[in-house]
Specification:
It comes from Bradyrhizobium denitrificans. Its cofactor is [2Fe-2S] cluster. This is 2Fe-2S iron-sulfur cluster binding domain-containing protein. The protein is α/β, with parallel strands linked by helices. The protein folds into 3 domains: about 90 residues, Beta-grasp domain (Ubiquitin-like (UB roll)), CATH 3.10.20; about 90 residues, Elongation Factor Tu (Ef-tu), domain 3 (Beta Barrel), CATH 2.40.30; about 120 residues, Rossmann fold. Helix content is about 20%, strand content about 35%. The chain is built from 7 helices and 21 strands. The protein has a 6-stranded antiparallel beta sheet. A 6-stranded parallel beta sheet has the order 19-18-17-16-20-21, with helices on both faces. Strands 2-1-8-4-6 form a 5-stranded mixed beta sheet. Helix 7 links the parallel strand 20 and strand 21. Helix 4 packs parallel to helix 5. The protein is globular and about 65 Å long. The two termini are about 35 Å apart.
Length: about 325
């Protein structure tokens, strides 16, 4: 069945693009080499907002955090979530220009391997025909079905054709179940990279906080630090929280990587600690309070479920940690 196309016009440039019915405005612009600003690709940040001058669009993710009534009144739409349902004209903002689109690419990927890491947590290894360049800590959008897209962080280092993701299957989770149902040999579309929670190599104390499968970007950044033999001249703390010891996915791999980093220590913490558990019990916020005496003197990297990330951000605000010293991505 042939794909339906509609024309997308971008003003004030006067550029006209044939837009396939499955494409978002951001995808179509990127394919045509028009650089619209974007950051998260998931409707959280609002960086990609443009003005809808004429035509109709629908939203893949109507509940996207960056969607608000004020924008609706001003005809402002998210380019990363909007698809044309008619001929469409948009007006880009002053931050966009016509040039080869940077960064993000779209590739077909073959699932090569699936490895169990913890109860309902698996590592998925996808291979692309051409490498996708990314920075450790960034994430990809996986197309798992019609109108079904989910974000997962890469846990491996760049430089090859492999993209590895650590993901949990949730009961009732449409996206997580679709991913878990894939068998080796399955082919999906992957968009990458997205995100700004990447390692700043400047000297100073670093604190990495992971919860659950948030271990993926933290592990990638630890691998970067180990491979580059980085020495920050200050302590490096890696706090990894989970419900119980069995839920600490990639625990041994993470510990081995951390052992290669100067002045780094690994601090696992579990909510349900069994008798004889030799490490911390409670939440990651408890571990931060117990082990980081002066949070304002440290730089934080946080990844995990939204409720955990929000709790850590709240704790750091109350400790007067400057926002410029807290790095995270939101796509839960």
């Amino acid at each position: 069945m042939a794909l339906m196309t509609r024309q997308l016009r971008i003003e004030p440039d006067g550029i006209a693009i044939d837009m396939a019915d499955h494409e978002t405005i951001l995808q179509a612009a990127r394919r045509a080499g028009v650089a619209l600003p974007y950051e998260c690709g998931w409707g959280s940040c609002g960086t990609c907002k443009v003005t809808l001058v004429a035509g109709q669009v629908d939203l893949i993710f109507p509940g996207a955090p960056a969607v608000n009534p004020r924008d609706a009144r001003r005809n402002r739409i998210l380019a990363c979530q909007s698809r044309a349902t008619s001929e469409v004209t948009i007006a880009r903002g002053p931050g966009a220009w016509s040039m080869p689109a940077p960064g993000c690419v779209e590739r077909q990927a073959i699932l090569r391997d699936v490895v169990d890491l913890a109860p309902e947590v698996r590592q998925f290894s996808f291979e692309t025909a051409e490498p996708i360049d990314f920075r450790p800590g960034q994430y990809a959008i996986l197309h798992l079905g019609a109108d079904l897209r989910r974000c997962y962080s890469m846990s491996n280092l760049p430089g090859g054709n492999l993209l590895q993701f650590i993901a949990r299957r949730y009961d009732g989770g449409t996206g997580s179940n679709a991913l878990a149902a894939l068998a080796p040999g399955a082919v999906i579309t992957i968009e990458a990279p997205f995100g700004t929670c990447t390692l700043r190599r400047r000297p100073g104390r670093k604190v990495f906080v992971a919860g659950g499968t948030g271990i993926a970007p933290i592990l990638a950044m630890m691998r970067e630090a180990a491979e580059a033999r980085l020495d920050f001249g200050s302590p490096v703390d890696v706090i990894y929280g989970a419900r119980g010891p069995a839920d600490l996915a990639a625990h041994d791999v993470l510990r081995a990587v951390i052992a290669r980093i100067a002045q780094a220590r690994y601090l696992p913490v579990v909510e349900n600690a069994p008798s004889g558990w030799p490490h911390a019990a409670g939440f990651v916020t408890d571990a931060i309070k117990a082990t980081i005496p002066d949070p304002a003197a440290a730089e934080f990297y946080v990844a995990g479920p939204p409720i955990m990330v929000d709790a850590v951000k709240s704790l750091l605000r109350s400790a007067d940690v400057p926002i410029t010293q807290v790095h995270y991505d939101s796509f839960g």
